[in-house]
């Protein structure tokens, strides 16, 4: 422990990862509250039903690539109140819907009145054949934060429940290796980075549950060519961005180093075991070099590009429709606005999509 281990107010300081874990998912954690994520911020899922329709089309492509299996899984990881699963099941054509199984994977409890067809789980099913989809999940997997001290050394940032910080020990071990590989910090006092190793491991463990199909993570993201110099850790409360304080009163989130997650399933450290058994982050034994069954390379693209491929373009309806069928024209215009929000530059359209096929060809070429 360093001098910074206790704050002035007497509260214990811990690394951001442990503090966030308790603040979000502890017994009184932010995500245990009844209002759910939609009570505090708007994701693509809440922005428009068009998003669920596009994901349903993606599930149909996965179904085709799998050769129309007897049962087809749709697994929403970090499902909030299960809104996306309900929307996807409702948007499927009848022949696919008859074979589809919908799973909401969530640490919070099942909301009252949820569609009975949706299975509510606290971790993904063991052998998924279909689509595993994680919208804004990885940014809520807690991470530690490093900051460069006056001597140019990256140290762990410690935080008290009120959000006040102090520097702790130098970053070492696997976390130092991760920084060196994915987010090297120049020796300039005050530069910061979020150490994404727990997210890489969590993603690899999730992908390991897919026997055949596609895993997709969608999130605020950055890649090695453009890391933010001071990191992105922030809070959200009742729709507004706020200073992050790990006291359970707000969401705590940081953008995702999605390129590191993409590499996690094809690196010897985090790849699936030869038996295909699930490996849970982060305390698993390492796969001995040479025994990992590497998956095909993952692919990164923007939400804008992904949704365009899934036939969500935001094109305006033809003007002729206005005189032929005015109410259809008004409905089509509203859809255009929603599609524009889902694909907007500087907004949801810039989100990163990480596609990891497992045993099938990439269904979004
Ligand atoms: C930002 S919300 C996104 C909710 C929803 N996917 C959406 O896009 O509206 C993140 C959700 O992930 C859940 N979550 C975080 N870690 C999880 C885990 N390991 N297993 C299941 N759910 C998790 C949280 O409880 C929270 O509901």
TrEMBL record:
Transferase among the record's keywords? yes
Q: Which domain of life is it from?
A: Bacteria
Query: InterPro entries this protein is in?
Result: NDUFAF7, NDUFAF7_sf, SAM-dependent_MTases_sf
Q: Where is this region: Disordered?
A: 269-290
> What SUPFAM superfamilies does the record tag this protein with?
S-adenosyl-L-methionine-dependent methyltransferases (SSF53335)
**Gene Ontology MF term list:** protein-arginine omega-N symmetric methyltransferase activity
Q: Which GO terms describe its biological process?
A: methylation
- Give UniProt keywords alphabetically: Methyltransferase, Transferase
Which Gene3D superfamilies does the annotation name? 3.40.50.12710
The name on file for this protein is SAM-dependent MidA family methyltransferase
């Amino acid at each position: 422990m360093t001098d910074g281990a206790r704050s002035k107010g007497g509260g214990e300081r811990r690394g951001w990862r442990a503090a966030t874990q308790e603040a979000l998912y502890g017994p009184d954690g932010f995500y245990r509250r009844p209002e759910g994520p939609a009570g505090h911020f708007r994701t693509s899922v809440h922005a428009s039903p068009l998003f669920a329709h596009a994901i349903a089309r993606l599930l149909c492509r996965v179904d085709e690539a799998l050769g129309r299996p007897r049962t087809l899984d749709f697994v929403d990881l970090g499902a909030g109140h299960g809104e996306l699963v309900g929307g996807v099941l409702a948007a499927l054509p009848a022949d696919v819907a008859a074979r589809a199984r919908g799973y909401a994977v969530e640490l919070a409890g099942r909301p009252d009145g949820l569609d009975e067809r949706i299975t509510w789980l606290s971790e993904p099913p063991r052998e998924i054949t279909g689509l595993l989809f994680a919208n804004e999940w990885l940014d809520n997997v807690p991470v530690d934060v490093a900051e460069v001290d006056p001597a140019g050394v990256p140290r762990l940032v410690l935080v008290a429940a009120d959000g006040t910080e102090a520097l702790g020990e130098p970053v070492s071990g696997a976390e130092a290796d991760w920084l060196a590989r994915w987010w090297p910090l120049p020796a300039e006092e005050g530069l910061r980075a979020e150490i994404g190793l727990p997210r890489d491991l969590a993603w690899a463990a999730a992908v390991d549950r897919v026997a055949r199909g596609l895993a997709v993570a969608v999130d605020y993201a950055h890649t090695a060519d453009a890391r933010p110099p001071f990191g992105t850790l922030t809070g959200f409360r009742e729709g507004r961005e706020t200073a992050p304080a790990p006291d359970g009163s707000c969401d705590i989130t940081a953008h995702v180093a999605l390129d590191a997650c993409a590499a996690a399933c094809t690196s010897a450290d985090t790849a699936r075991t030869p038996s295909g058994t699930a490996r849970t982050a982060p305390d698993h034994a390492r796969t001995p070099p040479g025994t990992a069954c590497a998956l095909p390379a993952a692919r990164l693209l923007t939400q804008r590009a992904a949704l365009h491929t899934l036939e969500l373009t935001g094109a305006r309806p033809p003007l002729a429709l206005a005189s032929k069928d005015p109410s259809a024209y008004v409905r089509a215009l509203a859809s255009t606005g929603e599609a524009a929000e889902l694909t907007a530059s500087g907004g949801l359209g810039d989100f990163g999509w990480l596609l990891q096929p497992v045993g099938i060809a990439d269904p979004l070429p």
